[in-house]
Amino acid sequence: MRTIIPAAILLIALLAVPPFLGLGWQNALVNLLIASLFALAFNLLSGQAGLLSFGHAAYFGVGAFATLHLMIAVEDGLPFPTPLLPLAGAGAGLAVGLVAGVFATKRSGVYFALVTLAIAELFHSLAPHLQGWFGGESGISAMRMPWGGFVFGSLLEVYYLTLGWVVLSILVLWAYTRTPFGRLTLALRDNEQRVRFLGYDAHAAKVVVFTISAMFSGVAGALLAISNETANYALFSAHVSAQVVLHTFVGGATIFLGPVIGAVVFTLFAYIVSDLTRSWLFYQGLIFVLVMLYAPIGIGGVIRHHLRHWRSIDWSRLAAPYALAGVGGAMIAGGVVFLTECVAILFGEEYAVAMRDAGDTLPPFEMAGMSWDPLGPASWLPPILLLSIGGLCLHRARDRIKPLWDAIEGGAAKEGTR
Amino acid sequence: MKKLSLLAALSAGLLSATVAQAEPLKIGIIESLSGAQTSSGRLYATAIQYGVDKINAGGGFNGEPIEVLEYDNAGGAPGAADKFRQAVADGVDIVFQGASSAIAGQITEDVRKHNIRNPGKEIMFINVGAEAMQLTGDQCHFYHFRYTTTAPMRVNALVQSMRQAGDLGTRVYSINQNYSWGQDMQAAIEAAATDNGYEVVDTVLHDVNKIQDFAPFVARIKSAEPETVITGNWSNDLLLLMKATGNAGLDVRFGTTYLDQPGNIANAGETALGHYIANNYDNSAGEPAFADAYKEATGHYPLFVEPQTIFAVGALGEALSGVDFGGGEIDVTTIAKALEDTAYETPVGPITVRPEDHQTIRPVVVSKVVRNAKYPADDTDMGFEAVNVVAGEDAIYPAQESCAMDRPD
């Protein structure tokens, strides 16, 4: 009951709000849904079965290409309902995942990761040469055909189609975790040896998990193909494989919906920041590093930690240091952004022109609507103040938060032993 | 900033409504502005901004300055598809893109589909650097304009000029990258053989930007005993090939298409001397005023893909000067028709649009790497010196039959 109500509210919001949003946000939501499903499918393998794949782009891409081929066939007159197109992606992901899985899951750990990486690279380097299947380096394209009164021309229709498939897939993936085989998947991660001693065929089980994960990755790829109406070999690139790893680990691999959180955070981040600053990839990397260093369980893990201890948290005492930490974090972020943007401007080409025009002195530069003198203390005071005060705030906040949490966890542990 | 304010509006539970007024013309640049390909992407963006600034200095268009919006496609076609939709949401009228034919293929398809679904709200795509033949072949459509050369134009100009200079010889070797561009180059080299009195002694297509050691290829070139090697290779594939040839002591002349990519001359060093390049422009071919004005504004002479981009925006500016919406709604189809009829005068000759496939008919400049050049490349003492300007009508080839263009009424 506790999870159903927020989930229902979220679903209603996802259904009701988008018609009132601009095209840009609708597009961002489509991307967000696809990234969420992809990350969840990936996490079935990496988080639940403990098999870290570095080549999930292969199944994502195969799903996209298979769907496009079906779309082309529909364009040529094949009577196939447009809303069921992702089935092609699911089928292709399943088939390729099965073959790849048989080989890849013979090993685990680093070797498994390397085999998956190699399989994705294989697709990435072969695809541009296979004109008929992958359309060379320019890829293949098709148009969404109208079906059953829906034109599928507007982004909103694509959004609802995507939403339907993503919600359905998430429900199936969640149901999977509740089955005995879902439990076996977790056991594979925790102790494969024991699974074998219990009489299970560990390899066969791993192949099944791999195949299911690849199948849902294929569905995610299919949804991308439907929304983009094209696919090219760039879908197989290591960048796509890396992105899903990033989403999953920032969101939290040990929680079912953790990857969704990561996908949402990064997709929104890319949407809002990527056209504001050229340094957005740097910031994205920074976020990843910080999460891995200070919250290795991911954002979802931090949230779950709080929910688990909700009753024993004394918010009247914790709220103030949390607010302090928030202020400190915001100040440090401000300082880092300030410095990064200064560096980007000072070493940029426009500033080189300004410098030449000023006769090789350092002229003032514009940032955030204000003028700054590169040598003036007034320009460097804000970041120094932001960073040092922010650091102090964080330090202070940590000193106060830690004993409080120790008490909460200590209390919980005592309760557990009693 | 618009997005941030939108976010604020949303969080307050409000809905944003855009107010329609005398609308400015919006140009969207969808380029690689982060990651490995940033340097090319920035050159296009700089040149477009320069051209638009010039139009705006002359009063802009439709009573408003032209707006330029930059979109980072993150180096791939999926990113470009995403950013194209963002550009549509922002009300962009004209999309500019140049680096990578794969991305151009994505954008031109997106533009075509958008225009089918949104009659009256068309978007135009000005391609300033993607040279794949299919963009003006089976992918061609009325709203795509290619303001750059293609493989046959470059090869025709290159072999004609090298032959006239007595540097071509009769034995030509073709080595290219194994994807559409390299295949187009190879086909063009083979097609130009009889007219220019040479024999293609061997052809090679190799992997794109994956080869670290070109020695085996150089050995193959050596055994074929060519006098000239023609290649459409770019980036590392060109550099490593030239270096390996130099190291093997093989005395051949290179005919290239991308030797002027920034950094190439400095990297190749003396090996590059005497090699040829066919490109859209070279500073030594036209009057100095053009190059100087650009340097004044941006800090460097126009290089690599910048001149062709400046010409494209210049042609657009000229087309716009003949169109008047009286401050009202902008009709992109009218602009496209005007651009189709525009003959733009560059420092080396006119550029016109061929109505059948919207390929531009344009002069091709062939130049050679020399010492003590007037416009040194990469802070070396070497640079390019124009040897010949091949007029547009001499470099052009017949429109491809695969192009079936639907024209608006």
From TrEMBL, chain A:
Keywords of this entry: Cell membrane, Membrane, Transmembrane, Transmembrane helix
Main localization, broad class: membrane
Superkingdom of source: Bacteria
Annotated Pfam families: BPD_transp_2
Topology class, membrane: Multi-pass membrane protein
Compartments reported by the entry: Cell membrane
GO cellular component, one term: plasma membrane
Record-given protein name: Branched-chain amino acid ABC transporter permease
Organism lineage: Bacteria, Pseudomonadati, Pseudomonadota, Alphaproteobacteria, Rhodospirillales
From TrEMBL, chain B:
Record carries keyword Signal: yes
Signal peptide per UniProt: 1-22
GO biological process, one term: amino acid transport
InterPro entries: BCAA_transport, Leu-bd, Peripla_BP_I
Keywords: Amino-acid transport, Signal, Transport
Location of the Leucine-binding protein domain: 24-371
Residue stretches spanning the membrane: none
Family: Belongs to the leucine-binding protein family.
Protein name per UniProt: Branched-chain amino acid ABC transporter substrate-binding protein
Organism: Marivibrio halodurans
Lineage: Bacteria, Pseudomonadati, Pseudomonadota, Alphaproteobacteria, Rhodospirillales
